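Case study B.
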Amino acid sequence: QEQLVESGGGVVQPGRSLRLSCAASGFMFSRYGMHWVRRAPGKGLEWVAVIWYDGSEEYYADSVEGRFTISRDNSKNTVYLQMNSLRVEDTAVYYCLRRFDFWGQGTLVTVS
Amino acid sequence: DIQMTQSPSSLSASVGDRVTITCRASQGIGNDLGWFQEKPGKAPKRLIYGASSLQSGVPSRFSGSGSGTEFTLTISSLQPEDFATYYCLQHKSFPLTFGGGTKVEIK
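Model:
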């Protein structure tokens, strides 16, 4: 059964860092590009970042460019989101997803 | 960046109604568009990909159309479980961008 399980969310002060993890199982992780999408309270969905299946390319939303870094470890079937210089407006539920056809349940990040 | 303008931002409808939601892209995106449904406390799920292809397992009352800059999601006969928020997403170029969302509420 396909699964994406995010972890690493929590409460953090502005300016600090946090690393999210997303563990995949039930499918050939190394064949898929992986995305992060977030949903801030009272706002709509926002695409955050993508990493190619082999880690060769990454792209970011303008709002996180230079502060967030997406990475992956195909030997561990895990994708990461390193979030630095966090801002109050980064408060959101963060979802990892496989090519938009399969989503994790999300992890809440609160910057306060 | 490609901007996605979604309308309306909210609507009230009754069970059995036909509902139409529109997304307009600021530049041509071919058919590189998906539609997503979000319910409170749950992860979003994709309904439509490639502008008009129905995701496996999604009821046939959902349909998508359009190409280039104008896209439509239609629910042919609204069901109680369809009350949710709907988003379009363009994946023609990075950064990917969602529409602002349409909240479908019970009249």
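Chain A touches chain B at residues 35, 37, 39, 44-47, 50, 59-62, 95, 100-101, 103-106 (CB under 8 Å). The remaining cases will be described in the next quarterly update.
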